[in-house]
Structures are given as C-alpha cells and as structure tokens.
C-alpha cells in the first residue's frame, strides 16, 4: 500500500489567514492600551520630578509628591506584570483558535483528495515540490473568503 504524504507550510497559511489577522489586531489593541497607560504614568512621574526641580515646595507637598511617585512606580510594575501574563495567555488562545480552524479545513480538504498524511514543513528536511500543498491550502482559504495578505511589521506597536 502506498501512503500519500504531503507537506504544508503551516506558518505561511496562518499568516495569510484572515481570522489570524483579527487575532493580531486584538493583541495589537491590548499592546497599544498598555503602551498608552505606561506613557501616561511616565508623564505624571516626569511632572513630579520637574516640579520638585523648579519649584520650592513645602514639606507636605514634597511628601505628597514622593508618595505619588512611589504609587506610580508600583502601578507601572503591576501593569507590566499583568500585561505580560495576559498577553501571553491571549496570544496562546488566539493561536490555538486559528490552528484549529486551519487544521479542520486541511482535514476536510485532505480527505476529499484521499491524502493519508500532511506534515508541517518546518519539521521536514527535504520534500519534492510535487508533494507541497501550501499553495492549494492558500487557494482554499481564498475561496472561503478568509485570505488576507500578511505584510511584515503590519501589527507592530512601539512600547517605549
């Protein structure tokens, strides 16, 4: 019995999969919200530092500023640790959801084509191009209206 084995560049399919782009946008939005929060905290801290340099402040105001500065430092550290934990979980959830959708499509497509085995390209050393099905699957996601071209860096968020 001859086993029909084909190779799929899963990453190539994933990055051009429209629902994956939706996931990237969700994650980008969270990163942007975090960046904005940190920026606001930084600005307030700078204001406190600058006011203590330029103004002669009474003891009570100096104490109040020092307390607020410490609160802001604590808030920034807590925000960062929460962000890191949440963003990792969110990225994993989104990836898993996208993987499942693509795997289901590949399963159905493979059964229709009587294919016995599909292996992810990143685990293969060599494959004869005739056994490469990536373009077929990209065509399939296009036919299902789930294609969106990925451009490197399109969802980057700068966090200073």
Structure description:
The chain has helices at 10-15, 18-54, 59-112, 134-143, and strands spanning 5-8, 117-120. It has 160 residues and is mainly α. The protein has a single domain, classed as Protein Binding, DinI Protein, Chain A (2-Layer Sandwich). A two-stranded parallel sheet has the order 1-2. The longest helix is centred in the middle third of the chain and has 54 residues, at 59-112.
Distance N to C terminus: 59 Å
Please tell me what the overall shape is.
rod-shaped
Strand content: 5-15%
According to DSSP, the number of beta strands is: 2
Number of domains: 1
Q: How many helices does DSSP assign?
A: 4
What is the typical, i.e. mean, pLDDT? 92
Task: Detail the topology: elements first, then pairings.
Blueprint: E1 5-8, H1 10-15, H2 18-54, H3 59-112, E2 117-120, H4 134-143
Parallel strand pairs: 1-2
Task: Name the features.
two-stranded parallel sheet; 4 helices; mainly alpha; 5% strand; 160 residues; Protein Binding, DinI Protein, Chain A
Provide a quick synopsis of the model.
The protein is mainly α.
